[in-house]
Amino acid sequence: MPRDNMASLIQRVARQARITFRSPAGPAFGENLHRLQQLLDEVRAEDLHLAPRGPSAAAAAPAGGGLPWSGVVPPVSYMHICETESFSMGVFLLRSGACIPLHDHPGMNGMLKVLYGTLRIACMDTLAPAAAAAAPPPAAAGGPCHRALFRSRQHYTPASPPCLLSPHTDNLHQIDAVDGPAAFLDILAPPYDPQHGRDCHYYRLLEGPAAGAEPAGLPREVWLMETPQAADFWCGGEPYPGPRVCL
């Protein structure tokens, strides 16, 4: 059964997010962000009326191989909870084997809390052009290239604290579902808005193993190439079943 405080908890998270990101440059931002992180860390799947989706959530693999949901249903779905000018909040659901490709969050803060399953998250920072001491590798002819710092690659579970990103730290990340379906509560501040320069860009690692593979020693500098959204990645929508949030 859901906990008695489920409605107040997600409502409190939303209210704290509104307070925190209303003035991200204000003197109390650090304290407010810490409070939001504490609240987000308390959220569990049952608080949002979500049940972990086991093997039955995906059909058997097709005879020709590949992922069971390929070409049939979206690998990732999104449940919208709320959105204001200063932040958006929702739940992403990843099917077994699904990946949200390496992408950025221009000028945005973000917080991610795993609700069920296990996620492998690779985080990177874009480096200033002047920091790039070497030329891009020959494979970089397909699109704009950026020097970046591959900072970390970690596993997150419901027992893990939230994964945080800022406009300058861990702003690029790739998210893989490991050993089954997974879901996470996501807060972005401010929301994506192409008209205000906050569009999502996708990238491919040009050297060494892919972002989801076992990396060499981290942190290390890498080259990224900007790419179109992958043809096998798209995000569908699902209704949010949890307590209503009013702001």
TrEMBL record:
A Pfam family matched in the record: PCO_ADO
Molecular function via GO: metal ion binding; oxidoreductase activity, acting on single donors with incorporation of molecular oxygen, incorporation of two atoms of oxygen
GO CC terms: mitochondrion
InterPro entries xref list: PCO/ADO, RmlC-like_jellyroll, RmlC_Cupin_sf
Domain of life: Eukaryota
Entry keywords, A to Z: Dioxygenase, Iron, Metal-binding, Oxidoreductase
TM region(s), chain numbering: none
Annotated coiled-coil segments of the chain: none
Protein name (record): AEDO dioxygenase
Organism this protein belongs to: Uria aalge
